[in-house]
Design brief:
There is one protein chain. The chain is α/β, with parallel strands linked by helices. It has a domain at 48-134: Nucleotidyltransferase, domain 5, CATH 3.30.420.270. Helix content is 31%, strand content 17%. The protein has a five-stranded mixed beta sheet with strand order 4-3-2-5-6, covered by helices on one side. A two-stranded parallel ribbon has the order 1-7. Helix 2 (84-94) crosses helix 3.
Length: 143
């Protein structure tokens, strides 16, 4: 009596587990890169606040940076003080859900910060925040 052996199958590489692994790695690196993103403003010496909480606004923010030498920037783009409200209004027309973040150097005059907040409010900003650094943080690293 002869016992039949099943036909020998060629070895093959299973693709489904490899695709699952690659998809997992892709998602992991996408999330990790989002966590490493920085605020769109320029680095300035922010004032300290006892109650400062770390926030990440991501692409939902419109950052107004006020430097100690008088420079005004909107998301790293230099703007004139007089045209700040117009520039903010244009960006808010595209995306009304944006949060205007005032990123002011701690050596700047209070009146300049209020003027920037007033320009944002006149442009139609519904939500604003003032960037600070937590107590004990390095002042040269920005937010």
């Amino acid at each position: 009596m002869r016992i039949r052996r099943p036909p020998v199958e060629k070895a093959r590489i299973e693709l489904i587990p490899m695709i699952d692994t690659m998809a997992f790695l892709l998602v992991f690196f996408m999330i990790a890169s989002l966590a490493m993103s920085r605020q769109a403003g320029l680095p300035v010496s922010l004032p300290r606040a006892e109650t400062a909480d770390p926030q990440t606004w991501g692409d939902r923010s419109l950052v107004v940076t006020l430097e100690s030498d008088g420079g005004v920037y909107l998301n790293k783009e230099a703007v004139a003080r007089g045209s700040l409200a117009e520039k903010i209004r244009g960006r808010l027309a595209e995306r009304p859900d944006l949060i205007v973040v005032i990123n002011a150097d701690e050596g700047i005059r209070h009146g300049d910060v209020v003027a920037a907040m007033d320009a944002a409010k006149n442009a139609g900003a519904a939500r604003m925040a003032i960037a600070t650094r937590p107590r004990g943080s390095n002042p040269n690293r920005g937010p």
